[in-house]
Write a structure and sequence with these properties.
Chains A, B: Keywords: Aminoacyl-tRNA synthetase, ATP-binding, Cytoplasm, Ligase, Nucleotide-binding, Protein biosynthesis. The structure is a homodimer of 511-residue chains. Chain A has 511 residues and is of the alpha+beta class. Chain A folds into 3 domains: 217 residues, Bira Bifunctional Protein, Domain 2 (BirA Bifunctional Protein, domain 2, 2-Layer Sandwich), CATH 3.30.930; 125 residues, Anticodon-binding domain (Rossmann fold, 3-Layer(aba) Sandwich), CATH 3.40.50; 81 residues, C-terminal domain of ProRS (Translation Initiation Factor IF3, 2-Layer Sandwich). Helices cover 33% and strands 26% of the residues of chain A. Chain A has a 7-stranded mixed beta sheet, sandwiched between helices. A 5-stranded mixed beta sheet of chain A has the order 20-17-21-22-23, with helices on both faces. Chain A has a 4-stranded mixed beta sheet with strand order 24-25-29-26. In chain A, a hairpin with a 5-residue loop joins β14 and β15. The radius of gyration of chain A is 26 Å and the shape is globular. The interface between A and B is large, with 63 and 62 residues.
Chain lengths: 511, 511
């Protein structure tokens, strides 16, 4: 438990960022590792955050004309093999189902029944292009069936040896959009549209500023013609790729035979896209906003906006306090903010007030309210905001409190975004020679380096070899992102080779 | 396409019920089989129905204090083995992950990498008692941590050889509740509460009347002390088990070491429950309400409540018709019914009106509206209800139409329930001797037979051997279900042995 002089989370970000992250996840009760290698348990507070992400994203997908559907968990090996680059990208890290029965073994325990071997191994989906492609090839017959705009909410598995809760786990939850179009232009437009949806969601809901744009060839999704991503900066100045949108050309349509009859009665392969985002977003929220006292959640996605609890002094006026809290909570729940009623947790557990306070601090609830006998007598409520220091409190009159709390939540949502944007911009720098780049990453703590690059894989590889950094994206419209953005579009000379470069790219270490 | 004299679905229910079911699923575009053995693809219209089921159930679970969480897809073999009856129940039908990598084979294709064999096989969850139990054993330390009320929305896999869309598939979607309690009484109360939630959902939302009560020992969930179920009657008079709630006693707590310190500082095993319902509910909706023209969906769960389309006569007043439709659709969407805005599909596709009409009939949209030039001129709308014959239409004045359509939807919801209840009651009969029971199942089409039973497994087995029928449940409070219910509670003599029977039970063939 934190004392005056200490922080609630130990180590602090400055002391050990990676361990701080794990401790925040634990202290906020978001998730935990499981006895199953690489798989996490998402606990109620973490899952509620994911549900809020899901609900809002789902609304955005539906508003852009997409419909949800559900496809099999298993992909026959032969399906995965249909697109050569694709299978090469996933073969090394997939869970393979080979049998369909256990029987009693000679020792009494259960063993895999050798008689129940599958004719063809099934891969637990790492992504669903090939199995959805099989369905699309049936659904798409004529240009009238296009565009086909589908999304799936599902679990996927990519076998990972080194895992980190939310950021990299063998099983994770995600959504994957899959669309088919009659023309290249329309498919490209869809790819861009969904990239924009992700960017809007990240900024307006997660309060997490992002750069968006195409990845380089080496960072493309296996089988894609072009991959776009949104990239955010975490508080350790590393980049987090938080959503990707792929233009798949006709690669997967050819692999899965997604063909349609045109108006002119010719036959053509469809143009497809896919786009995904995952429980990794929860990791992004944690690392963008939280501090050394624990989780901070943007109010717009918070599992609860407000926690209220009583502080009793003996039995003095106990009943009155409880009534006061309950009528206040009811009034707060009648407030609609961002299209849903405020979520209020009334915490009546019989534990010490200090313990309770710190628990809600660590869980990141935006507004905390303690009600004691003096509050009741004075007709006030004592309010603490999670974006201020834990001991900073404000007295509001009971009558004005609901409206003011609403305003506090809106202010906090804006403030978290502005703080994160400032942090990102403060740690984004134009770097013009290779020695400065070395200093930037090795001595000065890194961040987003804006450098000129000649477009070759060789120059790109040097960033990785020398600094473990990669080109995160070729940011679109950077001039709208920040003051430094305008100069990103000026031509220059590659920081590695001195060859001409049409514009700057973003180089950073990443998750 | 249906003609006057023909039905839209062939065969009809009377001709071949099982095939009629498949054809309704196909004609309504709800789901299809996939190239992966036993796994289905849930198409947008079917998935939207499932989403509506999920949303409403989830609300009911949360209102009764449950929180959602997420646990691993994989269960280590040793976990499944912890509860002996449990593993015996699932070992024969489980998908086993044995390897975590594919490599290039000698022939060029990919093969399972023998070097990447898992130390312990992982079972794709058929249900999650054991893996959730492992988490609960950590989460529960003190009586203060109880009750622990968790729900999970997930996919599960039970290897099936004979599958039927929604009713029996190897992979299906479901929710599984898992709770832990300090006392037996509280756990039993929870088991009953969730059974009641399922019954309320089935009747109030699905418009599907159910009987509820304990199953006999032979029909219990593997490892449970007692299993309760809701049972509905389909139009072929077979029973559908549509949700189960299990009192697990301390069996799983002992297997998973879920122990807590009591107020008295002793240590005790917790009392646990689990309860589940699945995409099988979609099958229940289809088989309860649909007719020989296709799907009928209760309006409260319908993916869309209303479909509207124009009927043009050449170019005459085209623009006016489109405007009329759009303003009318806007007005309908402003109506809130059962807590959400009406969903309106405006169908502007360039296909023949007759084809369009039949498509919406087959998809089961509750209200269909065609707008032609005469409707616009007369200021009326022509409305057809899915619970009437396809050609029955009503003219409503434009001004009154929104309120009347709302009333039609409410009336349809009630009417579907009443019709289903009457069907069930008409096909429920007290049967008092074994020859009559034989006649009931073999000659008279079967249904729910209310018979006296002596409580032995031997007598129960005879129903299965002789009629492929089982005891569906020992209905609770049958006197509230129907007129015949009151007499169910009178004692009598077992229909098999003549031994004393305290009350009647429900015997039926089932899915």
């Amino acid at each position: 438990m934190a004392k005056n002089e200490k922080t609630a989370i130990s180590p602090t970000r400055a002391e050990d960022y990676a361990e701080w992250y794990q401790q925040v996840v634990r202290a906020a009760d978001l998730a935990e590792t499981s006895p199953v290698r690489g798989c996490m348990v998402i606990k109620p507070w973490g899952y509620a955050l994911w549900e809020n992400i899901q609900r809002e994203m789902d609304r955005m997908f539906k508003a852009t004309g997409h419909k949800n559907a559900y496809f099999p968990l298993f992909i026959p090996k032969s399906f995965l093999e249909k697109e050569a680059e694709h299978v090469a990208g996933f073969a090394k890290e997939c869970a393979v189902v080979t049998h369909h029965r256990l029987i009693e073994g000679p020792g009494g325990g259960l063993v895999v029944d050798p008689e129940a071997k599958l004719e063809e191994p099934l891969i637990v989906r790492p992504t669903s292009e090939t199995i959805i492609g099989a369905a699309f090839s049936q659904w798409v017959q004529s240009y009238r069936d296009l565009p086909l705009l589908i999304n799936q909410w599902a679990n996927v598995v990519r076998w990972e040896l080194r895992t980190r809760l939310f950021l990299r786990t063998s099983e994770f939850l995600w959504q994957e959009g899959h669309t088919a179009h009659a023309t290249e232009a329309e498919a490209r437009q869809e790819t861009q549209q969904m990239l924009d949806v992700y960017a809007t969601f990240a900024e307006d809901y997660m309060a997490m500023p992002v750069l968006k744009g195409p990845k380089t060839a080496s960072e493309r999704f296996p089988g894609a013609v072009e991959t776009f991503a949104i990239e955010a900066m975490m508080q350790d100045k590393k980049a987090l790729q938080a959503g990707t949108s792929h233009f798949l050309g006709q690669n997967f349509a050819k692999a899965s035979e997604i063909k349609f009859q045109t108006k002119e009665e010719t036959f053509e392969y469809a143009w497809t896209t896919s786009w995904g985002s995952s429980t990794r977003l929860v990791g992004g929220i944690i690392m963008t906003h939280s501090d050394d006292d624990g989780l901070i959640v943007p109010p717009r996605l918070a599992p609860a906006h407000i926690a209220i609890w009583p502080v009793f002094r003996g039995d003095e006026g106990k009943e009155k306090i409880v009534e006061y809290i309950q009528s206040f909570a009811r009034e707060l729940r009648d407030i609609t903010l961002w299209g849903r009623p405020l979520e209020v947790e009334v915490d009546m557990r019989d534990i010490r007030g200090g313990e309770k306070q710190w628990e809600w601090v660590k869980k990141g609830v935006p507004v905390r309210i303690e009600i004691g006998p003096r509050d009741v007598d004075g007709g006030v409520v004592t309010v603490a905001r999670r974006d201020r220091t834990p001991r900073e409190k404000e007295n509001l009159s009971r009558a004005e409190a609901p409206a003011k709390i609403r305003a506090i939540l809106e202010d906090m949502q804006r403030g978290l975004f502005e703080r994160a944007r400032k942090f990102r911009d403060d740690n984004t720098r134009e770097v013009n020679d290779y020695e400065s780049l070395r200093r930037f990453f090795d001595k000065e703590g890194g961040g987003f380096a804006l450098v000129h690059w000649d477009g070759t894989a060789e120059s790109e590889a040097k960033f990785k070899d020398d600094f473990k950094a990669t080109i995160r994206c070729i940011a679109q419209a950077p001039e709208r992102a920040a003051a430094w953005g305008e100069r990103m579009l000026e031509p220059g000379k590659c920081i590695v080779t001195g060859n001409p470069s049409p514009r700057r790219v973003v180089v950073a270490r990443s998750y």
